[in-house]
Records
---
Amino acid sequence: MIAFLKAAKDIFLSCAAVFAFLAALLTVDLVPSKAGPLTVITDPFSSRSAMAVIAETQGQIFAGSRWPWIAVAADSEDPDFKKKLRDAGALFVLRPLASACLKKP
């Protein structure tokens, strides 16, 4: 019984950490910011890459990353560009992470 409670506690803490991370990403995405590059994050387990999503929306690819599910798109003058990226399969479209994705380790 004690082992079960310990496992349940570990699972709960892991889920809470994932939820907090996702909530932070969504909060960052909702904060208005100036125009600039956009980090596009797609499902890492999908066969569609972030670059394919950007290309499908007629966006300009600014840079790729070492992971196919993350890419950086140049900002578009289209006011619905972020919505089009999400409709095409992007899970997250974020501004602040764009410069971090371009840095090489």
---
Amino acid sequence: MRRLLSCIVSGSFALPLVVLAAQTLSAKTVVVGDCQPQLVSYSTISAAVAAVPPNSTVLVCPGTYPEQVTISQPMTLKGLKTGIGSKPVITVPSGGLVGNNPAQLSAQQPDPIEEFEEFGPVNISNLIVDGTGSGFDCSTGELTGIEYVLASGTLENVEVRNQNPGGCGYGIQLFGSDLDVLTVNVRNSRVHNFDNTGINVEDGGGSNFEVTLSSNWVASTSGSVQAGVAYVLSQGLITRNLIVVGGQYGLSLFNFFCCMTVTENTVTGSNIGINLGANDLSETSTVTNNILYKNGKGIFTLGGTHIIESNAIAQSSIAAIDLNCSSRNTAEDNVIFGAPVGIANATSGDTVAPNTFFGVLTSTTACP
């Protein structure tokens, strides 16, 4: 943004357009492996992404690639399949991963100091990232399968698995800031066998980072799991995901500054299915048409303003919905089946009707 303004002031506005056009014209398509003989070929993904100009496409042939890959310019990275062959697999290199908080595949803005810089898109699809045998020591940091740092783009049809070194394994991590306007979409992907968090989204404290998660499968039975999906100081849409984790939270939202929409997801097996943290009192987060099954508490609120509506919540061992005496919540038109308490800790500031209860010992309890 600052570069654009300086060009306008200096009268050289046409120069960035010429540079952009030149970059677009010089973009190319290359391949890693030998499955596309008509294209320039590289033996590793790292070599290919370093060699091509911005906005290029790097195709990856089926095979196993023991390397740690960093992308620092806009591009498309796409795995190929031949016949019924498997997707390309990025594995841990024989010498181990480099860094205190290593990511096996990383997309990151090359100059994070530049304010208001929009970086991307980096689009990644049809790849598997496998953390088996990482040997990573959790006392030094975190292990991540795929990481976006101050970068926009789309992750589609990826599988991220086995980031489980001992309690610090993350499948996907997405980091924004309070200055950069960034969007990331994660869709039709599988994240499993992690031992901390499946998909973790963090902003720097503003409302410029918007992440959409749609039609993903997130699953882990590790006893150290903190969350299947976690949003911290971020906003976006979470829809049609299946989250099956045996840890603390299936879906945890701490979006203090803005709003979230959580709809048509299925969450099962957690202590708390959907955890709703505080948000800006001028904004409202909506949790609608989800299925919560066999969680300790189906939905739990920590503060803020939430609409909890038209959800199906079954076999909660503690309570289907716990409003936690936080007020300003609407819980209506939910169908609750099989729970000791249907809606717990409601206050006079909450709206808690109408709802439908089946096999519930106590439909509603007031805040003590």
---
Amino acid sequence: MVVMLLALGAWGCGDDNETTMQDVKDSAKETLNKAMDYSQEQKEKFMKQVKQHWNSLKADVDQLQDKLAKEKDEASDRALEHWKAVKSDLEQKQEAVNQAYDELAEASGEAYGKAKKKLEAALADLKTAYEKAAAELKK
């Protein structure tokens, strides 16, 4: 009786419902394509956010540099040298952000993660330098 039930069960499972190797390959390919699309979308979203943040920070730095230029006439030689150094430091940090942004735009896979961290660090470094310079200027 058990053999008969097993035979009936096997007979009910026709070849039409079997998953083929091609089905698995097609499914895997579709999943991989979706994952790649998702990764690209996330990269583009992050790049857009970074660009907005970078543009805002750049505008702040530009305003600070304009203030420094106005203060130049009233500053002593010593203060002038200090602000020249601050300006140079800010310009170097901006260039580091530009380079890191370009690297991130070209990166993918493992390199993307490293480039993203590098850009985040460069932005944080520039922001810190800007905030320090802005606080000094207010004194």
---
Amino acid sequence: MAFDKNRVSVVIPAFEEEKTIASMVSGCRKYSSEIIVAVGKKSRDKTFAKAQNAGAIVFRDDGNGMGSGLMEGIRKTTKEIVVLIDADASHDPNDIPKLIEPIINGKADLVIASRMKGGSDELSGDFSQLMRNIGGALIMLTINYRWNVRLTDCVNAFRAIRRSTVLDLGLKGKSFDIEQEMVMKALKKKYRVSEIASHEYARKYGNSTINLLKIGWVFVYRLIIDLF
């Protein structure tokens, strides 16, 4: 089936990513006719203006966290398929066609861009990255055992999902745990979840806002409350 960008919305959560947001909007525009950028309420750089100048629909989130802003952006979409992608240029928009292909072909409802299959510049690094990788692997092992699946990466932000599916999940996560929650609730409701290989690049500017010591417990809590 031919690729149709008019069936695809892209939602990009962004917090002080003024150096990369315009290029991400431009890269996604080749594959989507509706690009929505959720700028963090506390973001103080030029991310909002640069996203707007690049032609995206832009709004400031409610300040309650990335997950909250992401859901607000999803609710603003109007297309059949929603692609979620980070603003820091760690994901390649050119992977969007193969990301949505299983959905277009009726083989999946949620497709994750797996770093375990495509590689990641952050799979090796400092102690914090090592702990994130170990924690993610343990969570993934638990999810696979619980639902008898063979997924490799439940927390990568780059993914595609049917709009009807994501709105049916009743997602509550306010933080980065929304990505894990999305996978678990999709499996719980018997939606089809699959993966494609996609390489994750190291962010070009700045540092990640994810502090494992501060929010690591959120992923464990999410695992416990949504496992059954």
